[in-house]
Prior knowledge:
The complex is a heterodimer. Chain A is an alpha/beta fold. Chain A has helices at residues 19-28, 39-44, 57-66, 69-77, 87-90, 196-218; strands spanning 9-12, 33-36, 49-51, 82-85, 95-96, 102-103, 110-114, 125-133, 145-151, 153-157, 162-169, 172-179, 185-188.
Amino acid sequence: MFSxxxxxxxxxxxxxxxxxxxxxxxxxxxxxFTVLEDASSILKFNGPLIIPGVxxxxxxxxxxxxxxxxxxxxxxxxNTSILGICLGMQIFxxxxxxxxxxxxxxxxxxxxxxxxxxxxERVPNIGWRKVLVNQGFDLDGFNDCYFxxxxxxxFQPFEPTQVVAYFKRGDALVPAIICDTSRRIWGxxxxxxxxxxxxxxxxxxxxxMLQRExxxxxx
Amino acid sequence: xxxxxxxxxxxxxxxxxxxxxxxEGLRKLGNVWDFANSYAQExxxxxVIVDVVATLFERASLYDLIHKVSTELKIxxxxxxxxxxxxxxxxxxxxxxxxIGINSAGLQRPEIYEEIASIYGSQAVVASIEAKKIQKGYExxxxxxxxxxxxxxxxxxxxxxxxxCGEIMISSVDRDGTFNGPDLELLRLIRSNTELPVVFGxxxxxxxxxxxxxxxxxxxxxxxxxxxxxxxxIEEVKSILNNRLIPVRTVST
Lengths: 219, 253
């Protein structure tokens, strides 16, 4: 029987993230991981990837491009599954608009745009919100749970990116979890690593899904 | 819907939790970590740590605390105090702070907010404000309510709206630690001058005061003395807010 925990996870450190928080969550959930600091270690690594991230889109893309990490991630994704968290997810987009328009990694069809001014809602969106989960993604256990958000920009998907979960903001529905049609590329807008026990449970479940996908396709 | 956020505010000095009245006469209350941990277990939505002295010598104990809170409690953490440069902010983010708050350095050089926001995003940059009532209205103070800036609160808020900061956290020098109730007139003044998220505190003595703050348009409350001296607790605050149909986070497992 396949055991997900035997597949090691690679966590990409691109100096735009609170690595401590995400690593402590992985440790707590018993997930084995390696921190990947540069392009060559990403290319050599054989397993699912996590891209954490806190910060501004432009500054993050600067770093990723100048260190060839963006190309390494794009190449690695042809052979593995990947999860981006907050900014780590936003850089998967085709294009971002924070501090000027610029291309992202193009892993998920969509663009990163600023939250609109809506009556009764603030920009940035800081705080805890109930997340509503669509059926069919094996994440029903997280429907209606509170998660911590901290962002001014969000991922606006183009087809065929799938909205796995969302939250309501005014009359709009904002994506909270997204994935591609192969379900190998996942992104989370909120911070599961800052969302208490339920966040740990979500990371743990998503990681085993990543490991399973990696195994089915390439194991 | 965004839950009304209950922040537990912890003032730190020489590695200990301290609390004063009107920012003066700091009393040592115990081990900061023990308080932070118990507030997180009670359901705090965020921990706010204020390094009230912020001397270089004592910064090491702050870093230890930030690391422990961020890795063990797994709820958001804001750190305020002594941040003057991008490098100061970087150290705090690297150690585990999710947001950093700036008062003194911002009053002296407001560009600091944009400089940090351009790297870390405005959602990570908080403008911290110490307001004190004066004849003409309210004035911004700094260095824990000791120094006057000569800047009126409404002028400062208008400046902050386009400064790069993503949240405003206000303390009232007059109400701090007094249990005299929050300064709702100050909250009205703030709210009518900004659309940014507002964290309001000082003077809270009961869950009813928190309801007033929520109804007054704040997005969040920061509570210190009332929690430290057990006038109320976070569970009680949340349950009373919930009864009044103010959305609060329920903790899922």
